[in-house]
Amino acid sequence: MRWEDLDQQPCSLARTLAVVGDRWTLLILRDSFLGIRRFDVFEQRLGITRHVLTDRLKKLVSYGVLYKSPYQERPLREEYRLSDKGLELYPVILGLVSWGDKHMSDERGAPIVHTHKTCGLHMHPSTHCSECGDAITAKDVKLSVGVNWQGHLDEFLPKKPATQT
Amino acid sequence: MRWEDLDQQPCSLARTLAVVGDRWTLLILRDSFLGIRRFDVFEQRLGITRHVLTDRLKKLVSYGVLYKSPYQERPLREEYRLSDKGLELYPVILGLVSWGDKHMSDERGAPIVHTHKTCGLHMHPSTHCSECGDAITAKDVKLSVGVNWQGHLDEFLPKKPATQT
DNA sequence: AATATAGGTTCCTTTTTAGAACTTGTCAAT
DNA sequence: ATTGACAAGTTCTAAAAAGGAACCTATATT
């Protein structure tokens, strides 16, 4: 598979990875969620080369995840801010952080704690069914081909969708 | 920042990306969740080079996300299966798929639909607070430094954590 | 006139990835 | 007994991506 064709694949995961699936993009977005907006601050915090940072920011803007917003004129300076589309990546970020908290922490535990403003407690994210509200694990979900994709995904879903134990 | 030091960063997102944050790893894991277990099947489905596939599988095994399990002897053949640690990445996968379904689909809609076995309905994932059960968005969460990290993350969290609008 | 700032671009080197051919141990067919 | 197939790699060379440093542009400050 060619990397440039990833956003044309018949798979939403592949299409999302066309946007965020490289070495740096999710770290840039992490900083965006921390409130970082300016080129030089991203550069310093991440230790990314300017060339790559320029490229990734352009890509994120072109996909509508970030948008440029002027914060001064003469000379024109713009900052990069999360769009609504970008803000909706929050569950992904939270999922990655939560897995890292559990499986990649050292003896000091989680570096950052998340407080739910509404209830005031330290929280971690929990994934639920949109329909019944129950918590979900991999074994609770069955996959099938979407109505408009019948016959086009025959070899994508293996015959034996296999319980993954 | 050096890429090899990513799993030592004081950030759970960075540490998780040390495991899954490259071009191919999440696509390999997607196939694992679809029930794929063998080297040649990964290779054919992904169009990945054998060299890189070997490398990524080794890495995933070394981090305990996959484990090798013999399915025949003479000659010894092993397959790659998701460990419990790997299965716990499901919320991340689901989050990426869901975002792609919403933002990257063409006119045919989502290629794959998810049915919640318990309630029988087509579902999408919803992220909730582990403590009160409410649904969560980026604006509902406040970040702060973990107890054992006081004073070590001063420049990680910007002074003004900024609402991300 | 010299320096600083923000946001880049250019150039060259090093690291990764792509693509194809080769390897190893075993079994099945000629 | 030889040939070919299979699964899971390893080894090569070439192309693409990333790293690192220097340079550029418009404006404002000293």
From TrEMBL, chains A, B:
The keyword Glycosyltransferase does not apply. The keyword NAD does not apply. Keywords: DNA-binding, Transcription, Transcription regulation. It holds the Pfam family HxlR. Gene3D superfamilies: Winged helix-like DNA-binding domain superfamily/Winged helix DNA-binding domain. SUPFAM superfamilies: Winged helix' DNA-binding domain. Coiled coil: none annotated. Residues 11-108 form the HTH hxlR-type domain. InterPro entries: HTH_HxlR, WH-like_DNA-bd_sf, WH_DNA-bd_sf. It comes from the Bacteria. This is Helix-turn-helix domain-containing protein. It comes from Zhongshania borealis. The lineage of its organism: Bacteria, Pseudomonadati, Pseudomonadota, Gammaproteobacteria, Cellvibrionales.
